[in-house]
Amino acid sequence: MMRRQVLEATHGFDPEYYLYGEDMDFCWRAKLAGWKVVYFPGAVITHFGGQGGNRQEENLRDDRMACAMWIFYRKHRAPTVAFSPRSARLVLFRHRAQDGRSGRRD
After folding, report:
1. pTM above 0.90, yes or no
2. Using an 8 Å Cβ cutoff, are 57 and 50 in contact?
């Protein structure tokens, strides 16, 4: 939940994000605009999407999450760093290899 003034002050959610990271980006921008951001651990949300996903969907989710983290990093942490989204995917690939999952799409 948020006040309309927060949405107006931050210009809403950034359409560059797809599925992951838009909430983190929004909260970061709200905080920078002087609004208080609060996490309430007692909240319960039931999400029925993505139940029982297969390996390919899991890999796609990981790719989208890595892309979202890249967008956040580029926007807020290092806007002048020459670091490509492909580099972020290579880091994810290494993580999968260490975790026992391959980056291969079946």
Report:
1. no
2. yes
